[in-house]
Amino acid sequence: MNLALATLAGLSVLAVLVWLLLQLQRTSFLARQLAFPLYVAAATAGLWTATLFPAGKPAMRVFEWALVFLLCVTVLRVLGLLLFDVHLHGRKGMRLPPLLPAVALGLAYAVTALISLKLKFQDLPFTALLASTAVTSLVLGLALQPILANFFAGLVISLERPFRINDWIKVGDTEGRVVAINWRTTHLRTRDNDNVIFPNSKISDERVLNYFYPQPMHLERIHVGVHYRTPPYRVRRALLECAAGVPGALEKPTPEVYVLGFGESAVSYELRVWIEDIAQAPRIASDLRTRIWEEFKREGLVIPHPIRTLELAPRARAGLLGKEEGPPPARLFVAEGPDRGRSLELDGAPVTLGRSRGCSLPLSDPNASKEHLKIEWTPEGYLMSDLGSSFGTLVNGRPATTAVLRPLDRIAVGETTIVFESDAR
To answer: Model pTM greater than 0.90?
Structure first.
């Protein structure tokens, strides 16, 4: 009866102290850091309560060992805080995985417990105890094989550090931000704000793509098809204009535009933009596509439908109708220089280019004359004539006073490059 009363008293004290510690840990950071020594202190207090009863006197040796063990684990925990939190993290700036300090302290606690038991209870058959412990460990190892596999996989992840907290990774078909790495599982937070839990052993067997290593920059690709009649330099300029100023898109490295291929109804282009956070990739891609649609609408660039169109050549159609062929649709597009992006439609009537405001296409280039050149329709085609300019005119890199223009010919006036675009076949 006295033994039962002593046991009940000790367990009651232990239960009350554990409940108080659980409440204290919710509000106290120090209590969370010293959790294990405090729980050992609660168990020691329960043993001390049991020894107050006559039937509990035999537990005095266990109580004395508990006091020694409590002192050792308290010292170890304080040393762990000084080493991992103050020195390595605070002074050295090293961010250790949470699992590594926990495993190191757990091993230190286990070794301390065995050594203190050996010193306090020298009459215990430690050889038989270790043998039975080995057999028990083998049985438990076989029974807890999945849990142990996850534990050691988590330990390897903590040591190798293929990813860290807040890294954005992809495991299999799932990608998200790493929010926790525990002894058994790793937690990912997806874009939908869902928490996906992966066993560590599964992550060690899967191919893991880390978008934040060695740096968080990520290349976002936007594909778009443009009509064949639009020259690539106009598409490139329009796409680069769309990439400027998008929130989350980086200016360095600079965006790039590539021609991917020639499809049945469109030329395929790829806009490559560097972004600073892969988690924002869908929003940034949406903003880029919105700007592309608006810019193409302003510039008259066509994103064609996947259709096939049968067209008759203009010469053949004019011959069948018995009509004289007129000037084909054409235009001038300023590709480089102060006025880049401007254009002028040509309908066969003479047009002039120069610094004068009275010109059909006024230029801001200081090297252009007031009336620099003239373009008019002739039976041979559109004819460019230099009007006695001071610095001359280049056509496709060669000096020219007169030249019959062909589609995509480049006219250089000072620092300004003008492309002659024509729909003639």
So the answer is: no
